[in-house]
Design goal:
This protein has 303 residues and is mostly beta strands. Helices cover 8% and strands 54% of the residues. The protein is elongated.
Length: 303
C-alpha cells in the first residue's frame, strides 16, 4: 500500500492538549516542547526473478517539535508596608483682640464680663489701652503621614495673658476694677481638608483662668483677690499652612468662665468674645526626624 499522511491525527491533538495543561504549572520563562509523531509513510517494493518473488516493505516515520507559548505571569500585588506617622511639636504666638469698644464705666445693673471692660495691658494705672486685650501662647501636637501631608486633628495646651480695666457707677459699692488673667486650657482642633493649604477649622477647650482682680472702693481702698475659675471655650478659624513648619492663623473665640465674687463688690467674669491672629512654628519630634527627612526626599506636594 502506498500513501503519505501529513495531517495531525487525533492522538497527536490529545497529546498536545495534555502537554499544554501540564505546562500551565511550569515556570513562565520555560517553553513547553511537544513532540508530534507527525506523518508516517509506507513504501512497498516487489522484485520478481525467475523462480522467486521478493517483497520489501519500508516504513518511514517523521517527528515534529512544537513549542507551545506560555501566557505572561500575573504579578502579585506588592504588600503594603505600614509606616509610622511623623509627630510634630510646635509653638504658636498670637495677639488677642476685642471687637467691642466699651466706654470704660459700667452702669448699675450692666453685665461686668470682659466684653464690657476696656482692654488695657497695664490695668493698674490704665496704660496701653486699645483693642489688644492680651497675648495667646499655645504648644501644639499633631501627626502627619508624610512631610507634605497636613493634619486633620491637632491638640494644644493654651496659656497667655489678658487684662482690662473699668470704672463703676458710685452706687455699686466700688469705683473701679482692674484685672489680669492667665488661662490654662487644653483642647483640640478639627480641620476641613487634608491637603489644601487654606483650611477652615473648629475646636474646643477646657481649663481654668488664674485671675488676679483688684476692686477700688471710695477713698482708694483696694480689695485684692486671686482666684482659679473653671472655664470652657469654643472657637473657629481659618488656617494658612504654608508648610507644616510655618502656619498662619485667624480665629474667633467665645470663652465662658465662672465669676469671681467678693463681699460687697460687683462680681466679675473673664467670659467674652475675642479674635486671635497668630503664627505657629513646628518641627518634627526627635523620634520622627529621620522619617521626616526620608519623606522629604521621596514625597511630593499634593497641591
Amino acid at each position: 500500500m502506498l500513501g503519505f499522511m501529513r495531517r495531525w491525527s487525533v492522538p497527536t491533538l490529545a497529546l498536545a492538549l495534555c502537554s499544554s495543561l501540564a505546562a500551565s504549572s511550569a515556570r513562565a520563562a520555560d517553553p513547553v516542547v511537544v513532540v508530534d509523531p507527525g506523518g508516517m509513510s509506507t513504501t512497498t517494493t516487489t522484485t520478481s526473478s525467475p523462480g522467486a518473488v521478493t517483497t520489501t516493505t519500508t516504513v518511514v516515520t517523521s517527528t515534529r517539535t512544537v513549542v507551545m507559548p506560555q501566557p505572561a505571569p500575573v504579578a502579585a500585588p506588592a504588600p503594603r508596608v505600614a509606616t509610622r506617622p511623623i509627630t510634630w511639636i510646635g509653638v504658636s504666638l498670637g495677639g488677642v483682640f476685642t471687637p467691642f469698644r466699651p466706654s470704660g464705666t459700667l452702669g448699675a445693673g450692666e453685665r461686668d464680663n470682659s466684653n464690657h471692660i476696656r482692654a488695657c495691658l497695664g490695668p493698674g494705672n490704665q496704660r496701653f489701652c486699645s483693642a489688644l486685650r492680651g497675648f495667646d501662647v499655645r504648644v501644639q501636637l499633631f501627626n502627619t503621614d508624610s512631610a507634605y501631608d497636613y493634619p486633620r486633628f491637632s491638640g494644644y495646651l493654651r496659656t497667655g495673658y489678658r487684662a482690662g480695666q473699668t470704672g463703676f457707677d458710685p452706687t455699686s459699692g466700688a469705683t473701679s476694677l482692674a484685672y489680669g488673667s492667665v488661662p490654662l486650657y487644653i483642647g483640640g482642633n478639627v480641620y476641613a481638608f487634608k491637603h489644601f493649604p487654606l483650611r477652615p477649622y473648629a475646636g474646643l477647650g477646657l481649663g481654668v483662668d488664674v485671675t488676679r482682680a483688684q476692686w477700688t472702693r471710695a477713698g482708694n481702698v483696694p480689695v485684692l483677690q486671686t482666684s482659679v475659675r473653671p472655664g470652657f471655650e469654643l472657637h473657629a478659624g481659618l488656617e494658612g499652612r504654608i508648610t507644616n513648619v510655618v502656619t498662619l492663623t485667624a480665629e474667633v473665640q467665645q470663652l465662658w468662665s465662672a465669676r469671681s465674687r467678693v463681699a460687697d463688690m460687683p462680681s466679675f467674669s473673664t467670659s467674652g468674645l475675642t479674635f486671635m491672629a497668630g503664627v505657629a512654628v513646628s518641627l518634627p519630634s526627635p523620634g520622627s526626624w529621620n522619617r521626616w527627612r526620608q519623606s522629604q526626599a521621596q514625597g511630593r506636594r499634593r497641591w
